[in-house]
Amino acid sequence: MNDSISRLMKTPIILSPGDSAGRAVGLMRASGAASVLAGENGHVLGSVHESDIASMMAHFDNPEDGRSQPVTELIKPLERALTPQTSSSDAIALFSLGSSDVLPVVSSNGIIVGMLHLRDLLGDVTHNMRPQGVAGMATPIGVHLTTGSVSGGAGSTGLFLTGAALAGMIAASVLVGEGFVWMLSALTGVRLDLMAASPPVTAAFDVYSLAFYGKSVLYAVTWLVLMRYSSLSGYHAAEHMTVHAMEVGEELTPEYVRRMPRVHPRCGTNILAAAGIFVIIVGRLGTDLGILVGMIVVIVGWRFVGGMLQQFVTTSNPSEKQLASGVQAGVELIEEYRKQPGYVAVGFQRLWNVGFPQVAAGMFTGYAIVAALGSLIGMTLWP
């Protein structure tokens, strides 16, 4: 790996001498640093530290009055700067000579071309560079993690198999539901398979409504049971636990990752739960009132319902193998991120890294196989 600090450089954020203390604090909070560079005409004048802003505000009866004060008097000269060719070890040595946690990166003619945060440098040399906004997906053969720009863990084969597995579970759910209608038809002598294809036209509970609602419930229950007891649920939990560990800065080892929760607030299950709640309420109530009630219930309870689904349906306690897969995916993702922390993929490359095309291809292939099998037995195995 290239040992120079060039890949860790960030676009320079520079205060002008006349800028306010309030703006300086805002820039520090946005960057996560305790100091911010100050400069003029492309040249660095020094840096402003949050402790100096605090000292200045302490002279006011109301500290808030210091918000609009210019930072001119707070700028402390920097006796050192980095170049894009500076090595990581030399950069650490330069940081150790002062109190600033951000240093400018300058060109050969002294023009600032970037900045380096000490926390990024230390994170890199200790292998703790953690990307933001990590997403993932469970596959039958392991965990897939991605930032959309770099990825780790199960690759395209695993993602393809996820799509195929989902297609198979949907087909199995349909088979169970249709089997229930067939059995009910055989017992009553009525072609309920035709009647149960659409919702009952009356509110009366009869054999037709039993066929339709029974089939619908069996669809859902069968899919949920298959998901809960498939390998996907264990890998799904390992995915969430690994992402939690990365977000809180824990070491990526089975020991630490095992302590993390299985439920994650950014899981796609929450979106599915919200959509399901809305469809059920609107379907039962209809009218504009139903839509309003559905929206209110979704806004208030979608995370709770999604969390419950994650806890009891779409995740399960991962095995040692599944947990190790999550840890390995996290380690690989961090290594790829360290190579190019500033890289941002766009367009199809981003979609590919997330896994949508591969999953879609798997579902399409699974659908084609299921449709072919259905034609052999004279049954439609797809909703």
Verbal overview:
With 383 residues, the protein is mainly alpha-helical. It folds into two domains: 5-125, CBS-domain (Roll); 135-262 and 315-377, no CATH class. The protein has 14 helices and eight strands. Strands 1-2-3 form a three-stranded mixed sheet. The longest helix has 33 residues, at 156-188. The two termini are 51 Å apart.
Topology:
Blueprint (H helix, E strand, L loop, with lengths): L13 E2 L5 H11 L3 E6 L2 E7 H8 L30 H9 L5 E5 L5 E6 H8 L9 E5 L2 E5 L4 E3 L2 H33 L3 H4 L11 H22 L2 H18 L5 H4 L10 H18 L1 H28 L5 H20 L7 H8 L1 H22 L6
Parallel strand pairs: 1-2
Antiparallel strand pairs: 2-3, 4-5, 6-7, 7-8
**Strand pairing plus helix content: what structural class?**
mainly alpha
Q: Give helix and strand order, one letter per element, not per position.
A: EHEEHHEEHEEEHHHHHHHHHH
Strand order of the largest sheet: 1-2-3
Beta content: 5-15%
Rg value = 29 Å
Count the DSSP helices.
14
Alpha-carbon distance between the two ends? 51 Å
Percent helix among the residues? 55-70%
Poorly predicted parts = none
- Average pLDDT, rounded to a whole number, is 86
**3D shape:** elongated
Query: Would you count the extended β strands for me?
Result: 8
Q: How is the main sheet built?
A: 3 strands, mixed
Overall structural domain count: 2
Offer a quick outline of the entry.
By secondary structure, the chain is mainly alpha-helical. Helices cover 56% and strands 10% of the residues.
